[in-house]
Write a structure and sequence with these properties.
about 260 residues, 12 strands
């Protein structure tokens, strides 16, 4: 019997991979990786390691989740050491819990290696702390998809009147609706909002506004991106430390015209 490692590969910057995650990659006979895993991380694997792409995007499925589950079980039963690489953290909207459950059903030995989730890392690289003593003592990591058992209205009413900071995964396409529902259920139209595209990577772009203005400012932002809602977004004005793609282009243009 082999073993499966469910590894969080982090949010994009390969330097944010954990040491334990790196060990699991180096020890793997087989690596199953997702769409948002930085390909530079795969270079740490042994030359003999076999790779299988299991990524999903909003428009197509390269491999259904059920097939990924079956593949992990089959490979482990053959005695392979399998590393399942997932963007961010495997247990934060990564379906890692479902995969661990499947492995447990077949008595496959497995280990979970947490990773840095984009809901924390992308705001941090954009100069936005998700909590701050002056602005927010609570934060929620949510998706744009309704919680099971709740209507859309109930879901967003709960969030509008709940945590002071919201980090919304997979919500860019529904941004107009999200803003509308949060305002409808009590959030001020002046609540700060930020969108961070490709957080922690060389392609990172951040756009800020309010619940009433962010939609018209966000046309250049596409998936993958994190939406941050709350007063903590104000902190970007003071502690924006990471030079983003747009900043670099602006600086290059400025230097070239001197």
């Amino acid at each position: 019997m082999g073993k499966v490692f469910l590894v969080g590969a982090g949010p994009g910057d390969p330097d944010l991979l954990t040491i334990k995650g790196l060990k699991a990659i180096k020890e793997a006979d087989v690596i199953l990786y997702d769409r948002l895993v930085n390909k530079k991380i795969l270079e740490f694997a042994s030359p003999s390691t076999k790779f299988f792409y299991c990524g999903k995007d909003p428009n197509r499925y390269a491999l259904p989740q059920e097939e990924t589950n079956k593949m992990m079980v089959a490979l482990a039963k053959k005695g392979h050491t399998v590393t399942r690489l997932k963007g961010g953290d495997p247990f934060v909207f990564g379906r890692g819990g479902e995969e661990a459950e499947e492995l447990a059903n077949y008595n496959i030995p497995f280990e979970v290696v947490p990773g840095i989730t984009s809901g924390i890392a992308a705001p941090a690289y954009a100069g936005i702390p998700v909590t701050h003593r002056d602005f927010s003592s609570s934060v929620a990591f949510v998706t744009a998809v309704n919680k099971t058992g709740m209507t859309k209205e109930q879901y967003w009413e709960h969030l509008a009147n709940g945590p002071e900071t919201l980090c919304v995964y997979m919500g860019v396409k529904r941004l107009p609706e999200i803003c509308q529902l949060l305002i409808k259920h009590g959030r001020s139209i002046d609540t700060p909002v930020a969108l961070v595209h490709m957080g922690t990577s060389e392609q990172q772009i951040t756009v800020t506004g309010t619940l009433s203005t962010i939609v018209e400012k966000s046309h250049q932002i596409k998936n993958p991106a994190i939406i941050i809602v709350g007063d903590v977004v104000h902190m970007r004005e003071k502690i924006n430390w990471f030079r983003e793609q747009a900043d670099q282009a602006e600086m290059s243009l400025s230097l070239s015209t001197k």
